Amino acid sequence: MRDRILDVSNLRVAFRSRGGEVTALRDVSFTLERGRTLALVGESGSGKSVTSLALMGLLPPNGRVSAGRLRYRGRDGREMDLSALDAAGYRKIRGAEISMIFQEPMSSLNPLFTVGDQVGEMLWLHQDLDEKARRKRVVEMLDLVEIPAAASRADAYPHELSGGMRQRVMIAMAMICNPALLIADEPTTALDVTIQAQILDLMRRLQNELGMSILFITHDMGVVAEMADEVAVMYAGAVVEQATARDLFADTRHPYTEGLLRSIPQPGRSKSNRLVPIPGTVPPLHALPQGCAFAPRCPYAEARCEDPVVLTEKASEHWSACILDRPVPA
Amino acid sequence: MTEPLIKIQNLSKRFDTPSGPVFALDDVSFDIPRGSITGLVGESGSGKTTLGRTLLRLVQPTAGQTIFNGQDLNSLDARAMRLMRRRMQIIFQDPVASLNPRLRVEAVISEGLAAHGIGSRSERRDRVASLLEEVGLQPDHMRRFPHEFSGGQRQRIGIARALALEPEFIVADESVSALDVSVQAQVLNLLLDLRERRNLTMLFIAHDLSVVEYLCDQIAVMYLGRIMEVGPTEAVSSSPRHPYTRALNSAIPLPQPGATGKRELLQGDIPSPLDPPSGCVFRTRCPMARDLCATTPPPPEVVGNDHISYCKRIEALDERQPLREQSRGAPSGARDPFAEERARADRSVP
Fold it and tell me: SMART domains, from UniProt (chain B) (predicted)?
């Protein structure tokens, strides 16, 4: 029996704009097993961040979930539909059940409060502890995310810390109430590669020790390969392929995923092998083509691609939204 | 490698800040061979951008020489430097911020030509049209404004502008970092085409080692204003001879599940440039540092053809187990499912 912490089905998100309503997510579906890491991968405009904001109930005022279900099952086994929660309901969940870390730690931390205060705020909101006990937990947590001299760093302000240290503070803040699900939106994109390696290492260690599930949003296929158990590839507001990380790389089923993989320079590959870019650019959301949104850039496209296409299981636990079983040159 | 177009000799740049002097560049020396692409890598704060700008004399060096075609740029007066600027151009990171939003593409690209009084208005327009075609855009795009283009297209406009004066040397400062990978690959291939077609010499500044390995003939690795290692791409990427290069290399997540082996995690952050470590600036994070590393900066050691490392403990480095032998040591392309198609791939940019 599987234990799904998250089951998103046919999620639609629409934004009001001057030109009318724009659909940012078109029937997004994916699942995340408890204790595992699912990577949501895609380029800018693919809808990966909107998906995470919809999960957290943090869509901007002009955006709304117009259809679909966001089923979440917490540690106590109780199942709920996140899209049905009101503001008060969400406040109980955020930080305690589901936490989020963002790309830019500087703009996500308040410059006027010490990092200890900010990490402790979550405890203050969700747990009934006196100040001394709170402080103790905060220092323990800063220690757990490997901030050196945690007790004195708790009194530092965000600007006194490096980018890597700030991201550790963000992780401490997200983890202090021991959430069941961590949503990480490009948490290492702004960091240098050596610091990224430290943070990824830390996240893996925390997952082993604390057992949380991770929804990891990234555009970096290297980070996907390193972190993910499962991968959902997004394009123009829809999931086009979902599989285990191993299958996604070894047995790629969707032409867009194949195109992404061919576009990345890989270390150690011979120089005479040119990258094969995907021609053109991502279409704007208000002018998506009929049928498959990737068809205009797809080397395998044919007339049938103008018909609607849905995610179908091409192999065991491997879904692709393409008329082809796998990309093969005609 | 051929005779260098640029010889950088003991270049230093000190910035005086309210908190004290910062050596953004400290005794930097290496050659940039004519017709080659040299990649300059390092973490943020390593001095990559300052080096690029100092080479173009957009920043005045405190000491040292930049010999361009046998001439020391830093000895030129303003007039001579102005003429020299036609021969060296720069492409910036942010294609939005670096294009004037109120100028049409034609004016953006021909601004340099006009400033140097080259050609009549209609000749300049013809030049703009052919430049747009060369970078994969259409001549009639010159009537549009920068905001009408996507990020990748804007970066192509920035490239066309840099090419307008037919420079011999181009500094590309993080020019693909802001682009999505599918578009980044288009621009990288364009740069390779241009290098071939125009025999351009380039300094490509980037923090992404995989991109640099793909594009560049030579790699220079910087840390806290100093060069750690410089050498041919093959040598620096497959058998780095500096512990910092090794750490950088091992930190890259490979797009192959299970490929990332044991990695040498660097501890801590890059130290403050206001108070750099004595001796070797990398020693505070170096897994191999010994007392001798704290005394004097390491001298250049020739470790191969055109390959120099600034490390006093190279012998100890060689004894250590190479990292990720299984994935890096594999013959190139052996496990690459797209190798065949890549080889056949059209060399032109779509």
Answer: AAA
